[in-house]
User: Fold Heme-binding protein 1 from Oryzias melastigma.
Amino acid sequence: MELATEVRRYDAAKYASISSEGRTYDQVTGELVRKLLMYIGGSNEQGEAMGIAFPIIITVYPRNDGVLSRRLAVGIRIPSMYQQNPPAPTDGAISIEDRPGMTVYTLQFGGFAGESEFRAEASRLTRMLGETAPFQRKQYFCCSYDPPLKPYGRRNEVWFLQEEP
Assistant:
């Protein structure tokens, strides 16, 4: 089955975000994702459990050779009910960001995904879109739609940000 890319539009929204420098994707993402899920799950000033919030969106910055640089940001869109007035995080590392709307090229794949899987899918998406496609080369998004311990039927996506004309 040939995997298809999809073009998707996301509206501007508030995201809970946490970033890291100095450690690799595989060293740090589990810990950062846990912190965000705890915030969404009720570790916030109001003690408010906000429900399910997926995908988890990890912004990565590839070097020219494709290897991911040691800085990244993990974000989760705050659930709709709380968009107007998100509960304040109790973890000082978490910030609430207003992110602009975006159009992304997406490619979906399964399994447990770390840096090497996301890099492989990103290079596949690059080939599928072609060299001249209008997407940002300096960063891309590694997305997961499942809780960390879900054993099978996992959904991951690579997102490339479309350059606005």
